[in-house]
Each structure stands twice: as structure tokens, then as C-alpha cells.
Write a structure and sequence with these properties.
alpha/beta
Length: 367
């Protein structure tokens, strides 16, 4: 059946292959890259790549795809908190510290969190993350309204920890700067001054003098102890990354052990279910299997009672089957010898057997 042909519509204008400037007499408006100066093209490409890398490196600071909202809090002391430390809410990392600076008699800490609600009654505390003294900022989001990022969390809602390592370092420096000999002499002078005073005052002065002499005699040991403690602290601080790696590997090992424990538990549970199914199968087929096992027991009893007869029958059947095997062992026929079937008078002369009916020696199969 012939269908009517519908004409294809045509555009009233022709799309140009290149944008051309009429004032340039037909030359293209944009020249291809191969016709431009390669030095300029390479320079522009490097600038574009550098700009893209700078934008990717500071992606957290961008307003649309940045790392979240920035807040600030006031602390009485920094307590070893540094820029880049983690910010956690209920033990979960939600951001990082972006700055720690001195603001008068207090410390200003700025931090950025993402996808986390911070209330107007939230509290902030500097916590110790590891035994080696690494810190983090713990935030407890409280309040009925959201915290204004422009308002700083006051010191009444912040807490700074007590750093034992810094205290030991300060104690070592303080004891190192004390002249223990002069201190002992001072306590001795005080004791001599109060020797004519009542017994209680003299006892106190004598005790102070004894304490001074003890400290003076143990000065070298205390200095060595504090120096060793400082060296131990420095060694542990240098090995911080290895301790973190060890703890991370331990977490992976525990996770793998947990997975294997689950697999072993599933295997034991499956074995228990299989035992239950087998018990049910035996219980269901006990009625059918019981008579069969009883009949098999009777058959075994009969065979045991006639064991001697079976042994004798097998001993007699052995030679018989050996002869049958020899008879049928030459092919698809059996060897036979018939003697006396034809009378001697009917045999041609010279063909009668010389040895009577003795069979000839085997030279091949006779069918």
C-alpha cells in the first residue's frame, strides 16, 4: 500500500560551522589552539590547574560545599589543645578545631562542625584522647534553641583538664632551680632561732630541719628521677604514631575475631539444627526401620549357624568353577572331546585314535 510522502521541513536559515566575523573577511572568530602560541596556552593551563588545586585544598572553607558551621568558645587555658584536633559529640567525630588563640586573660578556641546541632546551653570540655596527652574537644549539645555562631560559648560552660605530664615537667623545672643547700641552711637557722621556744614550736622547727636535710641528701636522686620521667614522657610522645597504629591494628584484629566468632557460632547452631533434624528423622522412621533391622538380624543368625556348610560349599565350588573357566577361556566357544561317538568301522583307514579315547594335546579351540 503506498503511503503519501510527507515533505521534510527545512529551516529558513543555515547554521554556520564556525562563528565568523564579517569584518574579518570570512576568517573564523576563534582560532583553534594549534594555531595559537603554545607558551601562552601552557601558561594559562598551568594557572587554571593551580587555581583548581587551590580551590580543592580549601574546599572546607567554601560557603556552599564547606565543612559546616564555625563556633567559638572561651577557656581558662589551652591545656595542650591545638588546631586540627578532633571535635566529638557523644564520642563521635563531628568536626575539628580550627584555631586556638589568646584573647586577653582567656583562650579563644574556634571549631567547625558539620551536620551537628549545637544548642544555646551547650558545654565544651577539653578531653585527653590518648595516654600520651593528645587532646580533643568534647561538646555536649544542650539547650532548646540553636547556638548563634556569632556568640562565643562563655567560660562558665567550658572545662579545661588537668595535665599530669605538664605538672611533672613544671615540678622538675622548679626543683631544679631550688638551691637545696641554702634551703637546708635556712631551715637550720630557723630551728636554732626557735630552740628556746615551747616544745611544740621546737618540734615543728626540728621537723622542718629534718625534712630539709632529707631533701638535700636526696637531691641527686630526685633530679635523676625527674630527668628519667621527662625522658620517658618524651619517648612516649615520639612513639605516639606507633601506639596509634598498634591500637588500630588491635581494633582490626578484634573485628576479625568477632567475625570468626560469628561464623563458628553459626556453624555450631547449624550442627545443632542438623542433629535435631536427624533425631526427628530417626523417630519418624523408627516404625519402618525396626522390622527391617530385626529381619537383618535373623538373616545374620542363619548365616552364622550355617557358616561351616557355606565354607564347605565354597571349597567344593572352587575347582568346578576353575574347570569351567578353563573350558570357556579360549573365546566365544568351549572346548570338548567326544570319544566313541562313531564306531571304528565307519572311520576312514588311518584316522582312528592310536591311544584309544585319550584326548589329544590342546593345540587350539575346537568348536
Amino acid at each position: 500500500m503506498n503511503r503519501p510522502r510527507i515533505p521534510t521541513p527545512r529551516l529558513p536559515f543555515r547554521l554556520p560551522f564556525r562563528f565568523r566575523d564579517p569584518a574579518r573577511r570570512g576568517r573564523p572568530l576563534f582560532r583553534p589552539l594549534r594555531e595559537r602560541n603554545p607558551v601562552i596556552v601552557g601558561t594559562v593551563g598551568l594557572l587554571v590547574l593551580a587555581l583548581a588545586g587551590l580551590v580543592a585544598y580549601n574546599a572546607d572553607a567554601l560557603p556552599l560545599i564547606g565543612g559546616g558551621t564555625t563556633y567559638s568558645a572561651s577557656f581558662t587555658e589551652a591545656a595542650g589543645l591545638k588546631s586540627g584536633n578532633e571535635v566529638r559529640v557523644a564520642g563521635v567525630k563531628v568536626g575539628k578545631v580550627t584555631g586556638v588563640s589568646l584573647d586577653g586573660a582567656q583562650v579563644k578556641v574556634t571549631f567547625r562542625v558539620k551536620d551537628t546541632w549545637i544548642g544555646d546551653a551547650s558545654t565544651a570540655a577539653i578531653g585527653i584522647k590518648t595516654l600520651l596527652g593528645e587532646k580533643y574537644l568534647a561538646v555536649d549539645p544542650l539547650g532548646s534553641r540553636a547556638q548563634n555562631p556569632g556568640q562565643r560559648i562563655p567560660r562558665t560552660r567550658t572545662t579545661s583538664p588537668y595535665d599530669v605530664t605538664q605538672a611533672l615537667d613544671g615540678l622538675g623545672n622548679t626543683l631544679g632551680s631550688i638551691d637545696t643547700t641554702q634551703l637546708a641552711a635556712s631551715f637550720q637557722t630557723i630551728s636554732d632561732t626557735f630552740k628556746d621556744t615551747p616544745a611544740s614550736v621546737r618540734s615543728a622547727a626540728t621537723g622542718l630541719s629534718s625534712l630539709s636535710r632529707t631533701i638535700s641528701s636526696r637531691d641527686a636522686q630526685l633530679a635523676d628521677l625527674l630527668a628519667g620521667s621527662k625522658q620517658l614522657t618524651k619517648t612516649l610522645s615520639d612513639q605516639n604514631s606507633r601506639f596509634q597504629t598498634l591500637i588500630s591494628d588491635g581494633n582490626l584484629l578484634l573485628g576479625e575475631v568477632q567475625k570468626r566468632r560469628d561464623a563458628i557460632h553459626a556453624l555450631l547452631t547449624g550442627t545443632q539444627d542438623l542433629g535435631t533434624q536427624l533425631n526427628g528423622l530417626v523417630a519418624d522412621n523408627n516404625r519402618q526401620l525396626g522390622p527391617t533391622l530385626n529381619a537383618l538380624d535373623r538373616v545374620t543368625g542363619v548365616l552364622l549357624a550355617n557358616q561351616s556348610s557355606l565354607d564347605k560349599a565354597l571349597a567344593l565350588a572352587g575347582p568346578y568353577y576353575r574347570l569351567v573357566g578353563n573350558t570357556l577361556g579360549n573365546g566365544r566357544w568351549f572346548d570338548s572331546y567326544l570319544c566313541g561317538l562313531v564306531p571304528k568301522d565307519y572311520l576312514p583307514a588311518g584316522t582312528e585314535p592310536k591311544d584309544g579315547c585319550m584326548p589329544p594335546k590342546a593345540t587350539g579351540g575346537t568348536s
